[in-house]
Write a sequence for this structure.
C-alpha cells in the first residue's frame, strides 16, 4: 500500500512517446502504390503524389488483403483493390514491401491492362467470394496479373 | 514462443531459479543493479559467509553459483570466462581464489555451491527479511545447531534422568499388580514378573 | 494372561519413548534462530562431464527441438509429445539442415493456385518459434517488389523444402535486408541448387550489404550488425550520441540473463539422447535414397 503510493508520487522515467512497433495498417489517409499500368495511376506515381485512402469498404475500417478502398488520386475519387500489404500477414500469405493497389471502376473492371508486380494467390479465392452474381465482378483483376506468388 | 539461445552452453544450476529476475531499486537501472550484485558476490567470495537482506542475497546467490559453475566448466585458460570473473570480482586477488581454491573445492560437488539461511529479524524497526549467505565448505563453525542427539547436553541429561525415574515408578507399579494377581492365582511361575524389569 | 501383560507393557514403553523423544527434541534445541531456507536440489547422480559432448552440437542444426526457455511455458509432457510429432513429420518429408542466410525453395500445396502447388525461392532471414510452431521467413525480390513469406516448418501442406545454397551469414537475423539495396536479396526463381562436398563445414558468407538511405524500419545502428557496411554514412551526430547512450555493455556479463535465455546442457543432452538416434537413422536412409536416385537416373536416360 505504502510502496504503491510512493511509486505513484515519484514520476516514472519515460521517454514520452510510445515505442511499440508500427502495425503498417491501411486506414484513412494511408498512401498506396498503384501497381497497374492505368494512365492516371502511372501519372500519379510519376509525379510523386501517390493515392490516399479516403474510405475502406469494410466494417473494421482497416484494409486487409482483397479489400475494396476508395482513393483520392490526382483530384479524383477512384476505387481500388488492395493486392499486397506491408502489414504482417498470416502464415503462407506473402507480405510485400509496399501497400499495393489496383484501380478498378464501379463494375470491377480494372482501369489498366497489366499488373507489373506479383499478386498473392490467395486473392483468387478472396475475390471470388466477394463477387456476387449481379454485382461487380472483381475476378477480372486476376486476368491482367502477370505473376502469382 | 521463443527459440532457445544456442550460441552458448551453460551447465544447470543446482538451486531453484525463479522465472524472472528481481529488480533491486537503483537509479542507474540495470547497470546499477549489477553493480550492487557485484559488490555482494565479491564479498561472498572474499568472506565466504555474509549476512544481508534476503532479496539481494537470493539474487547474488544465483550469480555466485553461475560464476563458479562457469569457472569449473571452462577453467582459467578460457578468455571470456576470465573476463566474466574479472567483471564480477572487484578485488583482483579473488580471481586467483576463484580458480585456484574454489574450483578444486567444488569440482566433484554434486550439490549447490552456496547455502542460504533465513536470519532473525531485528526486534524493532522495519521488518526486512534478512538472510545469511555462505559458501559450502567454509572454515567457520556451522550455523545450524543440530545438537538434539547430543546426550551430554544439560537438557538431555535431565530428560534422561526423568525418563529413568518414570520408568522405575512404572515397573514398581507393575510389579505390585503382578504380585496381587499371583496371590490370587497361586502356583504361577515367576518369569512374568521378572521379564519387564529386564 | 502373561501375553497380555507383555503386550501392554511394550505399548506403554513405546508410548513413553515417543513422548519423551518429542519432548527431547523440543527442549534440547538450543537458541536456534537460523533455519534452512532454500534446500538444495537433491543430489544429482553422476557429475556433468566436462569433456566436449558431440551430441550437443545438434542444437545448431535442429534448434526447434529445444523447448522454450521461459519456465512459465514449460510442460514436459507436451514437449515430449511435440517432439514425437516432429519426428513423425520428419519421417514423411525431408526437412534439410539450413540456417539463417541459406537460400531455400519451398513448395506448398496451395488450394488457391492454379496448379494447386506454389513454389517460392528466397533467402531465410529469420527462424523463430520452437516445437511444432517453428517458423522461418523467406525473402526475395520479384519484379522489383520485395516479398516475404512466412512458413511453418512442420506445416503438413509443405510438399518439399530444398536448400539451394547452404551457408550462414554474419548475423543471427537478416531483417536488415528489408532496408538494404534490392540486389542483395534478389534471387532467380529458377536457381540451381549448389551441392557442397560432403564433410565440409557450413561456409559463412562474409558479404556486407549496403543500406538504402533513411528512413529505416528499425534503428539498425544500435544493433551492432556485422553484415552492414555503410551504416555510418547515413547517421547524424545526434544518432551517434544516442547510440552511445543506449549501449548496454554490461549485458554480456549478466550471467543469469544469459542463463534464462538458454536451455542448460544437462537438459539438452536428455532431449538429444531421446531424438538423436531417429534423426540419424533418417539422415542415413535419405542419403542412401539419394545415392540410389543418382545412380538410376542416367540408366533411364540411356534406355
Amino acid at each position: 500500500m505504502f510502496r504503491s503510493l510512493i511509486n505513484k508520487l515519484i514520476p516514472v522515467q519515460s521517454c514520452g512517446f510510445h515505442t511499440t512497433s508500427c502495425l503498417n495498417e491501411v486506414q484513412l489517409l494511408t498512401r498506396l502504390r498503384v501497381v497497374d499500368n492505368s494512365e492516371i495511376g502511372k501519372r500519379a506515381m510519376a509525379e510523386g503524389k501517390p493515392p490516399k485512402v479516403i474510405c475502406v469498404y469494410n466494417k473494421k475500417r482497416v484494409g486487409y488483403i482483397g479489400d475494396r478502398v476508395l482513393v483520392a488520386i490526382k483530384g479524383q475519387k477512384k476505387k481500388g483493390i488492395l493486392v499486397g500489404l506491408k502489414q504482417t500477414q498470416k502464415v503462407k500469405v506473402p507480405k510485400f514491401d509496399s501497400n499495393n493497389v489496383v484501380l478498378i471502376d464501379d463494375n470491377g473492371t480494372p482501369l489498366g491492362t497489366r499488373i507489373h508486380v506479383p499478386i498473392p494467390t490467395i486473392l483468387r479465392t478472396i475475390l471470388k467470394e466477394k463477387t456476387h452474381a449481379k454485382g461487380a465482378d472483381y475476378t477480372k483483376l486476376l486476368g491482367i496479373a502477370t505473376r502469382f506468388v | 514462443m521463443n527459440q532457445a539461445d544456442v550460441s552458448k552452453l551453460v551447465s544447470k544450476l543446482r538451486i531453484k531459479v525463479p522465472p524472472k529476475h528481481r529488480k533491486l531499486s537503483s537509479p542507474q537501472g540495470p547497470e546499477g543493479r549489477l553493480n550492487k550484485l557485484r559488490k555482494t558476490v565479491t564479498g561472498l567470495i572474499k568472506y565466504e559467509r555474509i549476512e544481508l537482506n534476503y532479496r539481494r542475497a537470493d539474487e547474488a546467490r544465483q550469480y555466485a553459483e553461475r560464476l563458479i559453475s562457469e569457472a569449473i566448466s571452462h577453467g582459467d585458460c578460457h578468455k571470456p570466462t576470465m573476463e566474466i570473473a574479472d567483471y564480477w570480482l572487484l578485488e583482483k586477488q579473488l580471481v586467483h581464489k576463484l580458480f585456484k581454491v574454489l574450483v578444486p573445492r567444488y569440482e566433484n560437488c554434486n550439490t549447490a555451491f552456496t547455502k542460504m539461511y533465513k536470519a532473525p529479524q531485528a526486534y524493532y524497526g522495519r521488518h526486512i527479511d534478512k538472510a545469511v549467505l555462505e559458501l559450502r565448505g567454509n572454515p567457520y563453525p556451522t550455523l545450524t545447531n543440530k545438537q538434539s542427539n547430543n546426550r551430554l547436553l544439560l537438557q538431555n541429561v535431565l530428560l534422561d534422568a526423568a525418563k529413568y525415574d518414570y520408568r522405575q515408578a512404572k515397573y514398581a507399579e507393575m510389579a505390585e499388580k503382578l504380585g496381587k494377581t499371583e496371590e490370587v492365582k497361586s502356583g504361577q511361575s515367576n518369569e512374568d514378573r521378572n521379564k519387564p524389569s529386564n | 494372561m502373561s501375553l497380555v501383560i507383555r503386550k501392554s507393557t511394550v505399548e506403554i514403553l513405546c508410548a513413553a519413548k515417543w513422548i519423551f523423544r518429542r519432548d527431547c527434541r523440543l527442549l534440547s534445541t538450543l537458541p536456534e534462530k537460523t533455519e534452512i531456507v532454500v534446500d538444495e536440489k537433491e543430489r544429482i547422480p553422476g557429475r556433468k562431464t566436462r569433456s566436449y559432448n558431440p551430441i550437443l552440437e545438434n542444437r545448431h542444426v535442429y534448434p526447434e527441438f529445444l523447448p522454450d526457455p521461459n519456465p512459465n511455458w514449460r510442460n514436459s509432457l507436451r514437449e515430449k509429445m511435440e517432439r514425437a510429432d516432429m519426428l513423425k513429420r520428419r519421417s514423411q518429408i525431408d526437412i534439410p539442415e539450413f540456417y539463417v542466410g541459406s537460400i531455400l525453395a519451398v513448395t506448398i500445396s496451395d488450394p488457391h493456385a492454379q496448379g494447386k502447388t506454389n513454389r517460392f525461392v528466397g533467402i531465410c532471414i529469420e527462424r523463430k518459434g520452437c516445437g511444432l510452431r517453428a517458423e522461418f521467413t523467406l525473402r526475395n525480390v520479384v519484379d522489383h517488389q520485395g516479398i516475404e513469406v512466412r512458413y511453418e516448418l512442420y506445416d503438413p501442406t509443405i510438399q518439399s523444402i530444398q536448400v539451394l545454397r547452404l551457408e550462414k551469414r554474419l548475423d543471427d537475423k537478416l531483417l536488415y535486408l528489408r532496408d538494404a539495396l534490392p540486389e542483395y536479396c534478389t534471387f532467380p526463381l529458377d536457381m540451381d541448387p549448389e551441392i557442397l562436398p560432403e564433410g565440409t563445414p557450413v561456409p559463412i558468407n562474409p558479404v556486407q550489404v549496403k543500406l538504402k538511405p533513411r528512413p529505416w524500419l528499425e534503428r539498425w545502428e544500435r544493433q551492432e550488425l556485422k553484415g552492414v557496411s555503410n551504416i555510418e554514412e547515413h547517421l547524424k551526430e545526434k544518432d551517434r550520441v544516442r547510440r552511445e547512450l543506449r549501449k548496454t555493455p554490461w549485458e554480456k556479463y549478466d550471467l543469469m540473463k544469459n542463463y534464462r535465455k538458454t536451455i542448460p546442457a544437462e537438459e539438452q543432452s536428455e532431449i538429444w539422447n531421446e531424438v538423436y538416434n531417429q534423426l540419424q537413422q533418417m539422415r542415413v536412409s535419405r542419403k542412401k535414397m539419394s545415392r540410389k536416385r543418382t545412380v538410376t537416373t542416367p540408366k533411364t536416360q540411356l534406355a
About this structure: Strands of chain A lie at 33-34, 52-56, 68-73, 76-84, 95-96, 100-104. Helices of chain A lie at 2-9, 39-46, 122-130, 140-143.
